[in-house]
Amino acid sequence: MAPRSLEAPPEPVRHSSLGTSPPPTKAKGQPKRLAEICSPWAGRQSPATCHEEAALIEELTALVGDDDTNEFERRDVTVLITALRSGLSLPEIRVQAPGVTPARLLAAHRELERRRAIAEEAWRVVEAEPGREAVVDYGILAGKLLPAVLTQLQMHIDDDERLTFEIGRAADQIARTSRRVLMLEDRVADSADDPERARELGTLLYDVYGHGAWSLETFLPPRVGTLVPLRLAALLGEDLTAVRRVS
Length: 247
Fold this sequence. Notes:
Blueprint: H1 50-64, H2 74-86, H3 90-96, H4 102-128, H5 132-142, H6 147-154, H7 160-190, H8 195-205, H9 229-236, H10 240-246
């Protein structure tokens, strides 16, 4: 099988790890705390829906106009992802992250989406053409979004029949997970008039302890706002060991 022309993301400069803190140590006798998004910013504290993310990008695009740029820094990525996880509007972002520019936020989103889409397409190739060649040719790219899945497939790389079976099983699990997560995202969107309920449901999608549905091994992120720290770091080429220590 001749490899398709999937453009791999350029090798980026090394960035610092994500700016989240480890969960505080719980003293004996304290009640168990609910999982939290743990955003450092004020706001509704429930993640942006797919429609809200699209609307934010449209607003940024209109605002940037002819001042478009491809340049952005790691800080811009952090601001963008934190804002999407917290469901912030553009005015709220500009108040809570002074100095951030719309053009850089837009550039960060555009590059993250480009890399995410490349990794997703790599998995689609493996799924459509199951076998050793597809895993060898596209496994590294697909593993940026599905690291556990590709690690499992690599265990069967020399057994064609088993590998084909495991790819099919993984594809089924990914499809089921995607449907369940979409249903949960719809519930968050439907709770827009009840902020507390939306926040509660939002922690089922993402929380800093990695227990949310967006962190599931078989979840294939369909958009930038659903990227959790490990997948984000993989797309950016960051040190995953450091990210695991703070995720």
